[in-house]
Amino acid sequence: MTQTTADPTPLSHDAAAVPRVPRGTGRRLHGAIANKLGTAILSGEYKPGDVLSGEVAFSEALDVSRSAYREAVQVLTAKGLVESRPKTGTRVLPRNRWNLLDPDVLAWAFGGVPDIGLVRSLFELRAIVEPAAAALAAERRDRADLTIMKDALAAMRRHTLATEAGRAADREFHDAVLSATRNDALVALSASIGAAVSWTTQFKQRGRSLPRNPIPDHVRVYDAIAAGDPVAANAAMRALVDLALDDTQMAMALQTVE
What we know:
Blueprint: H1 26-43, H2 55-62, H3 66-78, E1 82-85, E2 89-92, H4 103-109, H5 116-140, H6 143-159, H7 164-179, H8 184-187, H9 190-204, H10 215-226, H11 230-257
Helix pairs in contact: 1-3, 1-4, 2-3, 5-7, 5-10, 5-11, 6-7, 6-10, 7-9, 9-11, 10-11
């Protein structure tokens, strides 16, 4: 199994065993600490109800300031992963409190092998939202929307989804579909949907190349939206999401065997 971009080093409940975080300053430092702790929580190293070691022990073990550690905990608190109380310390919250649609939380979830339940939940969300959004986009899109989608498709072909540039273009395509709905509530989901698309695509390529080229699936969505056909757009997007789920489950099965 190939190395992931996130730091895979496990965190022990014993603060003395926690790997040190390289010294840095400001947002970069507390962001690195939040990433390490968030990945540990999402991977199951810390479970709901577990209490993190105190800030003094943790800051000494990580060789960082107490203020940097506190700021990192504040990040986790804002995302619903933990809560801090004066006498009980910092405790991992139940999973139903986690903001699983936050792009950072999704990144932490895919730092290792993600939970199959989470992956299924993300694709169920996409299957509910994106086909309906594609149908609305077919009815409401304008020339500018189509240009963004077409340019994104061209960038996906040029860079391929094996590159960050290609995956960024993939996110832009899905963002453009949601934007074309002219529905503010759907547009508000674009960051979460885009993060889910990007991380699942990247995950599928960790141990091997993509099992098939998904760009033609996107082209069919574009063609239906450009034609102003909401029924065809809905069907094309549903097929795209279903095939992406199949590819992701295959990748997870292979990595489990490895």
